[in-house]
Specification:
The complex is a heterodimer of chains A (167) and B (189). Chain A is mainly alpha-helical. Chain A contains eight helices and no strands. The two termini of chain A are 29 Å apart. In chain B, α3 crosses α4. Classes of the chains: A mainly alpha (167), B mainly alpha (189).
């Protein structure tokens, strides 16, 4: 296992395709500290459902320009997020552990277009992006378990054929 | 009106959007994490079916916070169903209602059309395409694009990343094409 870690850590190009994997916290925190992420996720899930972001109908309305709702949600989320990132950079705000906050730069590759279009197709069909899928399942739409499983398979197939795909 | 009754009503965009946006600084400040959800699917692959594929050979345990987060989202769904469920039917644009009734989708309540996303539909051509192929595209496409609505559209745009803008435009173009040009054929099956 340690060998694998060493191998992947030398491959920053691959890891940087995935923002999640270059952004490691340096401070070692006990595992139970992860519970805070569970609480953030829980709040996020409640917001997604109560604002009907997880509704198949709202997604259909968005892609047919029949409602402003989803554009308002995403637009105001980006506005608040951008202001926060600006303030974090400007005021050099640190994490609660006193670490400098790292914001990874993304590099362009054609996958963002091809993959983006394919995800757009899937988004309009299932009426859900990955976050809402988990919220829908929790809310009681049990068949969404099939969709989540299919999404895991889709991720795996991408990993399997990654080298053959244009990037 | 009590607070619980207020919470139970559908939340307007200007309440939900800013709260979702606050996920960005909260995750950064509490743990130096960038907001993103589709990576959880990759971590599940890495943990369960890595199959010697280099894309899944990494220390997924270091990213376990992401799995805690999505499990929280799942629990959020359960908590909402138990305590904050709205008894009113969802209000949908009339032209969408009439379009859907043309495909036999009439029972408009809840989050997803029951006539489309029912267990009895999973193995029909329409259900297979919508649930299984649609889900496959969500997983394949997000990983190919390197993120989803949260990682690119919200986190990436908040950090003024051009690749995220390109990805977000591609998501929207794909969605417009599917919803307006292809979905009518699928829903007619």
């Amino acid at each position: 296992m340690s060998n694998n870690i060493k191998d992947t850590n030398t491959d920053f190009e691959v890891r940087s395709l995935d923002a999640m994997c270059v952004n490691d916290e340096q401070v070692n925190t006990p595992a139970w500290h992860n519970v805070k992420y569970l609480i953030f996720g829980l709040l996020f899930g409640i917001v997604l459902i109560k604002a009907e972001v997880v509704s198949w109908y709202r997604i259909q309305e968005m892609f047919r320009l029949q409602s402003f709702h989803m554009f308002g949600v995403i637009g105001s989320a980006v506005a608040v997020g951008a202001l926060s990132v600006f303030l974090i950079k400007k005021l050099k705000i640190k994490t609660i552990n006193g670490e400098e906050i790292i914001l990874p730069e993304k590099t362009f590759n054609k996958g963002q277009i091809y993959g983006g279009l394919l995800f757009g197709f899937g988004w309009a069909m299932t009426g859900a992006c990955p976050g809402p899928l988990f919220a829908q399942l929790g809310y009681g739409a049990t068949t969404i378990a099939v969709t989540i499983l299919a999404a895991i398979v889709g991720t795996w197939v991408y990993g399997k054929f990654r080298d053959q795909l244009p990037h | 009106m009590t607070i619980i009754e207020l919470i139970k009503q559908p939340w307007p965009w200007y309440v939900a959007g800013p709260i979702i946006g606050l996920m960005v600084p909260v995750l950064l400040i509490f743990g130096n994490k960038t907001f993103g959800i589709s990576s959880s699917l990759r971590h599940i692959c890495a943990a369960c079916i890595p199959s010697k594929i280099s894309f899944f050979q990494y220390d997924w345990k270091k990213e376990i916070w992401n799995l805690f987060f999505v499990f929280g989202v799942f629990l959020g769904g359960i908590v909402t169903a138990m305590y904050f469920k709205d008894d009113q039917a969802i209000v949908v644009n009339p032209s969408l209602v009439s379009e859907l009734s043309g495909y036999g989708i009439t029972g408009i309540n809840g989050l997803v059309p029951e006539q489309l996303f029912a267990w009895s539909e999973v193995l029909t051509p329409r259900g297979l395409i919508m649930m299984v192929f649609g889900g496959f595209l969500v997983g394949f496409g997000t990983r190919y694009a390197g993120g989803c609505t949260s990682g690119h559209a919200i986190m990436g745009l908040s950090n003024l990343q051009l690749p995220s803008l390109i990805a977000t435009i591609s998501f929207m173009v794909g969605g417009f094409i599917m919803a307006n040009l292809i979905l009518p054929f699928i829903l007619s099956l």
